[in-house]
Amino acid sequence: IMATIVLSAILAVSFYYWDHKYGGHWELDQNEVENFLSNYQSLNPNRYSYSDLKKMTNHFREKLGEGGFGSVYRGRLPNGLPVAVKALETSKSNGDEFINEVATIGRVHHVNVVRLLGFCAERFKRALVYEFMPNGSLEKIIFSSESKPCELGWGKLHEIAVGIARGIEYLHQGCDQRILHFDIKPHNILLDHKFTPKISDFGLAKFCSKDQSIVSMAAARGTAGYIAPEVVSRNFGNVSYKSDVYSFGMLLLEMVGKRKNVDVNVEHTSQVYFPEWIYNRVNMQHELGAGVVVMEEEDEIARKLVVVALWCIQLKPADRPNMKKVVQMLEGATEMLETPPNPFVSSTT
Fold first, then answer.
1. Annotated catalytic residue: which of 183, 192, 211, 299?
2. What are the strands of the beta sheet with 82-88, ordered from one edge?
3. Is 212 found in the same domain as 154?
4. Is residue 200 within 8 Å of 189, Cβ to Cβ?
5. 124 and 254 share a domain?
6. Same structural domain, 292 and 230
7. Are 227 and 305 in a shared domain?
8. How many domains is the chain built from?
9. End-to-end CA distance of the chain, in Å?
10. Does residue 183 have an active-site annotation?
11. Is residue 183 part of a domain?
12. Is residue 89 included in any domain, yes or no?
């Protein structure tokens, strides 16, 4: 397990270094943002003034949450439709993040991708207006505690997993250009009133043609703990759509464990890194245990999610399935799934 933890630490430190070295290098000035917007006038999202946003949010009174690039506030359109307004902080974001959001979500229409209803670009005051998701993020649902346990059953968790997978498959194959998200994690999965999952936060997304198997990247992007190894070091392989597959696998495991994949506060040290611990349970055909499941039917669903996740987090990108195959695996029979190879670095290497 130590080798795995060391690898995770290397990924985290490497990302911190690249983020701080290159993070502010690509700032875009307002003229470039305006040039972009003038070329995308055919997009559906409306353009709002900053004054409109203040009316919409009652002067940003109700804060829903905070992310890496700004804060999200609850608002309401003049027609009464509830919305979420993401106000981008100039000190944290740049034109890249704003343009990525408008360029990607502005042209994407899928039940499992959040809808962008509008935006604001008034000098350096930039904001994005989304459909409101009353059940918040998946992160708040699955990272339960004794005082606030996860209320969703395994059937609903399976539906959510399939929905996220379909959304990513659409981004990879259903658009004119392939969209690579590069930040799939529970925090970026929003849930509507029926707990239908919606992929959000496209600030780190990249476009590429569908026949392009390798993506060039000047710096690592993503969130430590979900970043595919090849995004940090090309020694593991080339960056491609398979990098999103890896992130999805790590998300799936957190849905099963209902905890962060790395947790130093667990009772047994063998469970600190949940992905490796759960792989050993599956590989030795043990019950999943550790409070993961209760009934036999639930065990089957949880085991399916685990096996699919372990295929997704294979160290070599070529060994991971594409998202179309992932959807088929999630919707197919559990007994048809093969146990994947060990996706972790051996302590002897």
1. 183
2. 46-47, 116-122, 125-131, 82-88, 70-76, 63-66
3. yes
4. yes
5. no
6. yes
7. yes
8. 2
9. 12
10. yes
11. yes
12. yes
pLDDT by residue for the chain (349 residues), tens only, comes to: 544 544 454 444 444 434 443 344 334 456 665 665 555 555 567 889 999 999 999 999 999 988 767 899 999 999 999 999 999 876 555 677 787 788 788 778 899 999 999 999 887 788 999 999 999 999 999 986 655 667 788 999 999 999 999 999 999 999 888 999 999 999 999 999 999 999 999 888 988 888 887 888 777 789 999 999 999 988 899 999 999 999 999 999 999 998 899 988 887 888 889 999 999 888 877 777 655 665 677 788 999 999 999 999 999 999 999 999 999 999 998 888 998 999 986 444 4
Distance CA 303, CA 298 (A): 8
In the chain, which residue ranges form alpha helices assigned H by DSSP? 2-22, 30-39, 50-56, 95-105, 138-142, 154-169, 229-232, 242-257, 274-283, 296-312, 323-331
pTM of the model: 0.84
Name 237's Cβ contacts closer than 8 Å, sequence gap at least 6.
Answer: 229, 230, 316, 317, 318
The strand pairing partners of 189, in sequence order, are: 199
Q: Which domain holds residue 236?
A: 138-336
Residues 230 and 303 in one domain: yes
Let me know if residue 7 belongs to a domain. no
Residue with tokens 């550790």: 290
End position of a domain, from candidates 111, 131, 151: 131
Q: Is residue 142, in this structure, part of any structural domain at all?
A: yes
For residue 29, give Cα distances in angstroms to 25, 89, 96, 97, 124. 12, 14, 10, 12, 9
214-234 confidence digits (pLDDT tens): 888 777 789 999 999 999 988
Confirm or deny that 86 is annotated as ligand binding.
yes
Tokens 């699919």, residue located: 308
Do 174 and 301 sit in the same domain of this protein? yes
What distances in angstroms separate CA 13 from CA 17, 223, 225, one per listed residue?
Answer: 6, 11, 11
> Is there a single domain that holds both residue 215 and residue 312?
yes
State the Cα–Cα distance between residues 70 and 91, nearest whole angstrom. Answer: 9
97/103 Cα distance (integer angstroms): 10
Residue 137: beta bridge partners? 190
